[in-house]
Automatic annotation (TrEMBL):
Cofactor(s) named in the record: Mg(2+)
Residues spanning the signal sequence: none
Primary location group: membrane
Record EC number: 2.7.8.13
InterPro entries: Glycosyl_transferase_4 (IPR000715), PNAcMuramoyl-5peptid_Trfase (IPR003524), PNAcMuramoyl-5peptid_Trfase_CS (IPR018480)
UniProt keyword annotation of Transmembrane present: yes
Pathway: Cell wall biogenesis; peptidoglycan biosynthesis
Protein's job: Catalyzes the initial step of the lipid cycle reactions in the biosynthesis of the cell wall peptidoglycan: transfers peptidoglycan precursor phospho-MurNAc-pentapeptide from UDP-MurNAc-pentapeptide onto the lipid carrier undecaprenyl phosphate, yielding undecaprenyl-pyrophosphoryl-MurNAc-pentapeptide, known as lipid I.
Keywords: Cell cycle, Cell division, Cell membrane, Cell shape, Cell wall biogenesis/degradation, Magnesium, Membrane, Metal-binding, Peptidoglycan synthesis, Transferase, Transmembrane, Transmembrane helix
Organismal lineage: Bacteria, Bacillati, Actinomycetota, Actinomycetes, Streptosporangiales
Designated name of the protein: Phospho-N-acetylmuramoyl-pentapeptide-transferase
Membrane topology: Multi-pass membrane protein
Enzymatic reactions: UDP-N-acetyl-alpha-D-muramoyl-L-alanyl-gamma-D-glutamyl-meso-2,6-diaminopimeloyl-D-alanyl-D-alanine + di-trans,octa-cis-undecaprenyl phosphate = di-trans,octa-cis-undecaprenyl diphospho-N-acetyl-alpha-D-muramoyl-L-alanyl-D-glutamyl-meso-2,6-diaminopimeloyl-D-alanyl-D-alanine + UMP
Spans through the membrane: 6-27, 56-77, 83-101, 121-138, 158-177, 189-209, 229-248, 255-274, 280-303, 330-351
């Protein structure tokens, strides 16, 4: 528990202090956001707002995590970083690097599109494939690896789907959720606020899995998770960094996270889903991301079939903008939807522990 608090506090402080420094640095260098011409007209006022703020989230998260473990070296109890935690942080950092390259190209070439879609997808797939292969290795003393080649909801279930099938499943999840957070990042504070809620859920899940671990107390509902406490530390570190960033990203935003932040945050929640063995619970916890992604799929698919649009504009938040809703109204209401999705996901997670009549 101490590591969770230290990681969250350090990353929060660094993000709160570091973000305004990044705002001044990026503004001085002209690292401003370019706005799509076909987007809502109200977004033109945001042109030139510093972007690539996701670099602050990634750096603050890493420092917060390692600081928490470094403090244990000064105490009698040694608590080194775990393989599970490091792999999730690798996924976050790797996808953040892909996003950083995309953001930098946008800024350098002064356009709203950065990496070509093929190159961007290739970067996500390479990072994701490395993560997928490594998380089924590194067994501990109880022969537990960070993940098994199985599907999971509240825990693993069913037979193994094989390394190849599991790798494809991991890649689908990672690319899907990193792009889902990216699609959600269209209004000030929307993606960062929703991600904070999902990360808070994973802090609670990691803690509960530790207290009911099969390595400590064998029971019918125990969890076979390799490093639940350290995964809670990772979630807390990123939560603190994301929360500190939200202070400056909330409407009206002084800085945007860019693809650097959205891909990194999508990657970290996907990584936590696999290492806590709650893969199919994540679409419920991150229901807002799923809804927004589905709005794009519906819009594109329906238009290709009928040449007509379901929404005024996709992703969904822009539909409500063009319907006359104020940006802050959309953001707050979507945060409420995200909170309801997290509450539903946590309710399902704890449901099996409810007393049976």
């Amino acid at each position: 528990m101490r590591n969770i608090l230290i990681a969250a506090a350090v990353s929060l402080l660094l993000s709160m202090v570091g973000t305004p420094l990044a705002i001044r640095l990026f503004a001085r260098r002209g690292y401003g956001q370019n706005i799509r011409e076909e987007g809502p007209s109200g977004h033109y006022d945001k042109k030139g707002t510093p972007t690539m703020g996701g670099t602050v989230i990634v750096i603050a998260s890493l420092i917060g995590y390692f600081t928490a473990h470094l403090t244990t070296l000064l105490s009698a109890v040694t608590d080194p970083p775990t393989v599970s935690g490091l792999l999730v942080l690798f996924l976050m950092t790797g996808l953040g690097a892909v996003g950083f390259l995309d953001d930098f190209i946008k800024i350098y070439k002064q356009r709203s599109l950065g990496l070509r879609s093929g190159a961007k997808a290739a970067g996500q797939l390479v990072v994701g494939a490395i993560f997928a292969i490594l998380i089924v290795r590194f067994p501990n003393g109880y022969d537990l690896t960070p993940a098994e080649t199985k599907l999971s909801f509240l825990r693993d279930f069913g037979p193994s789907i094989g390394l190849f099938g599991f790798t494809l499943w991991v890649l689908f999840f990672i690319v899907g959720f990193s792009n889902a957070v990216n699609l959600t990042d269209g209004l000030d504070g929307l993606a960062s606020g929703a991600t904070c809620l999902v990360l808070a859920a994973y802090v609670l899940i990691g803690n509960w899995q530790l207290r009911n671990s099969c390595t400590m107390l064998l029971g019918p509902n125990c969890y076979s998770v390799r490093d639940p406490l350290d995964l809670a530390v990772v979630a807390a570190a990123v939560l603190g960094a994301c929360f500190g960033f939200l202070w400056w990203n909330a409407p009206p935003a002084k800085i945007f996270m860019g693809d650097t932040g959205s891909l990194a945050l999508g990657g970290v929640i996907a990584g936590l889903a696999f290492t806590t063995r709650t893969q199919l619970l994540l679409p419920i916890l991150g229901g807002l991301f799923a809804i927004i992604t589905m709005s794009v799929i519906i819009q594109v698919g329906f238009f290709k079939m009928t040449r007509r649009r379901v929404f005024r504009m996709a992703p969904l938040q822009h539909h409500f903008e063009l319907s006359g809703w104020a940006e802050t109204t959309i953001v707050v209401r979507f945060w409420l939807i995200a909170a309801l999705c997290v509450a539903a996901g946590l309710g399902l997670f704890y449901l099996e522990w409810m007393p049976k009549q």
